[in-house]
Design brief:
Layout: E1 4-8, E2 12-18, E3 33-39, E4 43-49, E5 54-59, H1 83-89
Antiparallel strand pairs: 1-2, 2-3, 3-4, 4-5
Amino acid sequence: DFPSSFAVEGIISASYHELEEPIDKIETHRPIHGVDLDLPHGVRVTVNRWAKHLDVLIAMRPQRGGQDGHCGNLNFDAEDDTLESISARMSLRVSAQDSLF
């Protein structure tokens, strides 16, 4: 149903509704249906649903002990966030034990 929401205390709060602006600014010419997810540890996921694709934005606070991933390591040094630098620090493949598929 549109709009709708769902929540499990302390785990997730989800809302499917019309968003004010899209993640991809080129998509402003039509209504933006999206999902906002609030997760533990200050993680917020926004998903814009389109007919043939999704746009996803993940926002989070720096994690204790640091973090690293496809978007970099959040140390505010763009020089070490290139594909080559990230590949040197970690595998870019999801391990079989972590895969959902």
